[in-house]
């Protein structure tokens, strides 16, 4: 049996690799949207299968590590976190596929959506950055860095709200743009949900390092 | 230290209790919508705090059971599943809150949305039923019953698609209904996502009993 530390390191690497693919799927899905490129969108749909395989593989690794090493305290907490991060990453991959599918539908409609469409690359780059920094904080066990990500979630929410408002105006003005505007609304929604999952991971990292659970932190206000 | 079996039983009960509250939140959120009752909607928002507490409590229980009993094989798989089911239930609670918040917004608009609005109680009762039967399959360790839930997910998707189509027609016809129709679209979306999470749990139960992972079952087709 190999050293536990070595296996943990491999698990870290597997999560980072999965995170890298998810990040690239987010990026490609939005590129497919703004460049009207179905081929790119289909690549995201295909890559989901790889992401799903990675999820199953990571779950299996964690379960094996739990069974063989029966870790306690910090190591146990780490392995439980890995399961949660794995779920979040897989869900982000699904959301990137949603964006890619909406891109394909929008390409067919060729509707001039203007400024709200141009907001998508900005949102995407924000959520990619959140994911990237969160995973970096995870491997470094850096709670400061993880905390620094949390405010970005509100920024993403604000952009989404602005996009919704613009799209509602568009739909009211031009009934022919209703269908396209709704596709774009769901794109903004998916990107915002990706930011939520990055936030989940950041909160897990803070818990892992500090032992303080910041999920549902509003509970403290009761 | 109490018996592991006894603690597992308590964990089962805690998950069932959480599931019951989530089920009731789904029900109340849609009732708030069709009965235009803000008070009911606010109750769902308040109950989310209880659901969140339950999630933290269940996570802590599982982690303690892993640490103290160092289970292997079936018991270990069960505990890992409990973590996943916990995450799914909490997310369903969030989605019920989304429905409740949309209900409050819709009550303010008092828009005549007609048939698509009337579909919501039907969707809600389908997803409540899925959740209920899934958790029942979980406590009975009944893979047959869990499998029987899976087709309902497609039924829910079909209703959602029908609702989307009707709402798009509504928005094209009457620009004044755009905002309300979008709220309702997100309600349908939330209910459909709740069905997805019930499906996740059903797949976990099948895995738990049969040891076969049916998540991402399309991988087999490669």
Indicate the topology.
The structure is a homodimer of 222-residue chains.
Chain A: H1 4-34, H2 38-69, H3 73-109, H4 115-140, H5 143-173, H6 178-210
Task: Specify the CATH homologous superfamily of chain A.
Answer: Phosphate transport system protein phou homolog 2, domain 2
CATH class of chain A: Mainly Alpha
Domain count of chain A: the total is 1
Indicate the multimeric state.
homodimer
Strand content of chain A: under 5%
- The H/E string of chain A reads HHHHHH
Sheet/helix structural class of chain A: mainly alpha
The average pLDDT score of chain A comes to 91
Biggest interface, chains and residue tallies = A-B, 38 and 38 residues
What is the 3D shape of chain A? Answer: elongated
Radius of gyration of chain A: 19 Å
Low-confidence stretches of chain A: none
- Report the count of strand segments of chain A: 0
First-to-last CA distance of chain A: 48 Å
Using the coordinates shown, work out and report the CATH topology of chain A: Methane Monooxygenase Hydroxylase, Chain G, domain 1
CATH architecture of chain A: Up-down Bundle
Estimated helix fraction of chain A = over 70%
Summed up, the helix count of chain A is 6
Largest sheet of chain A: none
Please, could you describe this protein's structure?
- The structure is a homodimer of 222-residue chains.
- With 222 residues, chain A is an all-alpha fold.
- Chain A has a single domain (4-221), classed as Methane Monooxygenase Hydroxylase, Chain G, domain 1 (Up-down Bundle).
- Chain A has six helices and no strands.
- Chain A has helices spanning 4-34, 38-69, 73-109, 115-140, 143-173, 178-210.
- In chain A, helix 1 packs parallel to helix 3 and helix 5 (143-173) packs antiparallel against helix 6.
- The longest helix of chain A has 37 residues, at 73-109.
- The first copy, chain A, is elongated and about 60 Å long.
- The model of chain A has no long low-confidence stretch (mean pLDDT 91).
- The A-B interface holds A 49, 52-53, 55-56, 59, 62-63, 66-67, 70, 72-73, 76-77, 80, 83-84, 87, 164, 168, 171-173, 175-176, 178-179, 182, 185-186, 189, 213, 215-216, 218-219, 222 and B 49, 52-53, 55-56, 59, 62-63, 66-67, 70, 72-73, 76-77, 80, 83-84, 87, 164, 168, 171-173, 175-176, 178-179, 182, 185-186, 189, 213, 215-216, 218-219, 222.
């Amino acid at each position: 049996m190999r050293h536990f530390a070595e296996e943990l390191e491999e698990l870290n690497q597997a999560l980072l690799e999965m995170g890298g693919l998810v990040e690239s799927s987010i990026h490609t899905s939005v590129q497919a949207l703004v460049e009207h490129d179905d081929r790119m969108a289909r690549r995201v749909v295909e890559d989901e299968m790889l992401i799903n395989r990675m999820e199953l593989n990571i779950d299996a690794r964690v379960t094996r590590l739990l069974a063989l090493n029966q870790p306690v305290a910090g190591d146990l907490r780490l392995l439980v976190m890995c399961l949660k991060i794995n779920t979040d990453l897989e869900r982000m991959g699904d959301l990137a596929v949603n964006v890619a599918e909406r891109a394909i539908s929008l390409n067919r409609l060729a509707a001039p959506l203007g400024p709200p469409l141009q907001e998508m690359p900005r949102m995407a780059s924000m959520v990619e950055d959140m994911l990237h920094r969160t995973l970096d904080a995870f491997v470094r066990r850096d709670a400061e860095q993880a905390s620094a990500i949390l405010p970005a979630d509100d920024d993403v929410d604000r952009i989404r709200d602005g996009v919704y408002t613009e799209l509602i105006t568009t739909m009211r003005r031009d009934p022919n743009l209703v269908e396209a505007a709704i596709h774009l609304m769901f794109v903004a929604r998916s990107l915002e949900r990706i930011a939520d999952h990055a936030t989940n991971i950041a909160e897990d990292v803070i818990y892992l390092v500090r032992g303080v659970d910041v999920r549902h932190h509003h509970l403290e206000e009761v």
